[in-house]
Amino acid sequence: MKRIVYITILAGLWLRGHAQTLYLSGTGSDHTVNWDFLCTGGQNAGKWTTIPVPGNWELQGFGAYNYGLDKDTLKAREQGLYRYRFIVPEDWNGKTVKIVFEGSMTDTRVSINGRVAGPIHQGAFYRFSYDITPLLRYGRQNLLEVTVSKVSANRSVNQAERHGDFWVFGGIYRPVYLQAFPVQHIDHVAIDAGGDGALRAELRLAGLRLAGPGGREGATGAPGADSVRAQVFTLDGRPVGGSFTARVTNDTLVRLQTVVPGILPWSPEAPQLYQLRCTLLGHGQTLHVTERRFGFRTIELRPEDGIYVNGVKIKFKGICRHSFWPTTGRATSKALSIEDVELMKEMNMNAVRMSHYPPDDHFLDVCDSLGLFVLDELTGWHHAYDTEVGSRLVREMIDRDVNHPSVVLWDNGNEGGFNFDLDPLFDRLDIQHRPLIHPWAVFRHTDTQHYINYDYGSGTGLHGHDVTFPTEFLHALYDGGGGAGLQDYWEWMWNDPLSAGGFIWDFSDEAVVRTDRNGELDTDGDHAPDGVLGPYREKEGSFYAIKAVWTPVVMGRKEVTPSFDGRLTVENRYFYTNLNRCSYRWTLKRLGGPWAVPAAQGPSTAPAAAPPAGAADSLSGVAPAPPTGAADSLSGVAPAPPTGAAADSLSGVVPAPPAGAATDSLSGVAAAPDVRPGDKGVLDLGLPANWNQYDVLYLTIRDAFGRELYTWSWPLRLPEAIAERVASMPVGAPQAAARQAAAPQAVARQAASPVATQANAATAATNAAVRLATTDTTYEVTTGPLHLTFNRASARLTGVRNAQGTIPFGQGPLLCDTTDVGFKGMDTHYTGDSLVLEATFEKKSDCQTLRWTVCPSGWVKLDVAYFPEAYTTDYMGISFSYPEAKVKGVRWMGEGPYRVWKNRMKGTTLGLWDKAYNNTVTGQGNPVYPEFKGYYANLYWVRLLTDGQPVTIVCASRDVFLRLYTPAWPAHAYNTAPPFPVGDISFMHAIPPIGTKSQKAENMGPSGHQNMYYDYGKSPAYAKRVTLFFNFSGE
């Protein structure tokens, strides 16, 4: 079989003294190379075949799957035997050649042409290399043989890496390549570049030989190395400052230092990068040139104060991330790294914790370029490496990652997996002396305890004296945690000077494709569906809630009233950026009605299809352009506004209409306010005089790179006005389009009562009168083709029928939290042409008013006033029934497209939404997002789409939640299955919060408490009230 190898020259140039790189494997999961392979156990064992490298062999149909929490007796112990033939260029003879493995799980034995390259490497997540210069045949074919043992022979390695709450795999899952250097070369460069321009570097030299009077001399007879010269460049090649040099002595460690004027410091908000070019010289001749990308950045931990970057106190808005993709396991690609960092930036995050191991180097490159703080972690889930192995792995991690400006802290293990003997190594090996933490512990003036309750601590946490930032909090199992409770936690953290923020657990569900189960997605039950994203990066509701809470531009609470002057209070929660760097676009929009043809009046809710197996290479990695020199290799454009942001309708400026006229949509740009970090100011939108002729005001703010921070929405019309507009039109109008065209004229009649307007419209349409018939148990009401049945013993609607047949809607209203309503009887009377059926109740009963009004127009009005059963309650509202099996979808005006919980109210947008039915269990199987079932905020109207006749319901009351059915829950939901009331379709004044895997909602902050409402002795003035209009025409 013909082999193809890829040769690249570092820095992209074939220049004297530059190292050369030859990839033996592919460069990532999206570009692999087949090697010969034999697996000793499990699937497809005992036969030579081929396998793509890099990759985890389980995902390629070999061996056996295990989760880290499996018992040792159940864990597979197979080995993978790899072979690959390659040709080394003949002109590499006389150079130093190394073979480099970016990562291999786990114990790795390497041979070249039958000779062992070096000691077996133990540790799965670390770059390691061997000098194979004497083992190669130059200009001829060579044989690479690698034996990988999935389970290490070292018990501490298994305890640290493979006894954890994550999937454990086997295989060469990161790239393998050769590097050729001049014999005398710079082996390693470590840079400490401060935010003030001070720079020092330590260079480790190799291959130096003592020479005669001329100084040093290499084995090839080249001049002996005598100095090193360094120069800072921008990434596009412009020199910054002057060059600086140091002499080479007998020591192989060379130190250089300088101060570079006029630099731009690195931060997540402005990730400015530079290049340091180091040249090894001998008698003025270039021996070796190497370059390292870096940023000027100073990190300080000030005890009993906070974490400072470039002299500015910061707070982490972070998340924990595994290196993972469902079809490739731990094998990833740069495209996936870009995708993931973009998603974090889209959530307005500024930090990521590497859990629980160092990531791919390209992930850190992307964090450098696009701007994220990184916590880089030595593996140790609950157990630590022994000192011998751990010491080597600490060096490998720091050697690889030391120059990344994004890396601001080191983590020595996790949740007790700390080897304290390794702590001094971090201090000694890191030229920058970054702070070291023990995640989950109180250590070195930091408190990083996990899953702390809101307001936790007595002499500890934020009630103690250490800088506090939980390295895991708000565990996002299923639909819990994540954005739920975050508003409470974040305000607590933001306003406490000892808080340095925190890291949500975690980024995405770890659902792996099981090649041994016909491609089933497996999360190992409740162990791995912990993300705010699905396994293929599907966005859950918490994604947008986090985006809303962590936006660096915070809007003051505002009720838009007729006196609104277009001015909004804004707070700048950036750390380095003035708000005058952002752009501000407002949009006024008039929304359509229930019968309008669905259009772009809110973002599309169509879920992203899961990529097919092996589709990681389809990830686009589109990124906004960073500052000059920050990411010249990561070109792209600003991503489209996300689902849920109402951005579909916000693009483009609509020409101003004539005075007094109103279009369906009008947009404009507001002047950016001058508000410094930490300050508050005023944003003047400069709205037109006719702004109040629209239904919704949207405001989209984008950062300096064009990335959307958030889109806010404010209602300009209350539900009563929208109900007047919709319910003023007679049922049975022949054209839905005509109905929509009539809407603007209906606005002028908003002062009239809905019932009177309906009656007038009905008379014009010559509808039949409303007729009443009575039986022993029911009231039978008919108007035109509509026939309604009401139970005389409860006043509940029990039957709906029209000319097209029966509509199985009814069995309500039922109070959600009680069945004892003190019902006494019913009265009937006519008001004009409309029939009123009104229940009477005991004076102190929970239900105070239940009144049906059947209009000759065909609209049916319901007024309910009630009290919750108790002062504290999970929910309040009224319910009806409709068979779930008949539902095909829903269209509504309100907040969407995601459901909400009491402690996760942010992240939705007021608009028109269409959603097909799904029975998604968040984090399970092949989910479709947004979920269909749940609670939806700020309802105006809803149209239930069924396999029979649709039902339209208009809500004329403020602050009403729509409840759509009851979600299915996983087997072990912990605290993530909030209660739901009786019935199927509900109209609620209060809904429950949601908890996390380990925390009850009540311990997650004020919004996680039960709803509280005092009825003042059943005083009618304090009753909760809701008014609904029903359309049972079947349109």
UniProtKB/TrEMBL annotation:
GO cellular component: beta-galactosidase complex
Keywords: Calcium, Glycosidase, Hydrolase
GO molecular function: beta-galactosidase activity; carbohydrate binding
Record flagged with keyword Hydrolase: yes
Needed cofactors: Ca(2+)
Ranges of biased composition (kind: Low complexity): 601-616
SUBUNIT field: Monomer.
Protein name: beta-galactosidase
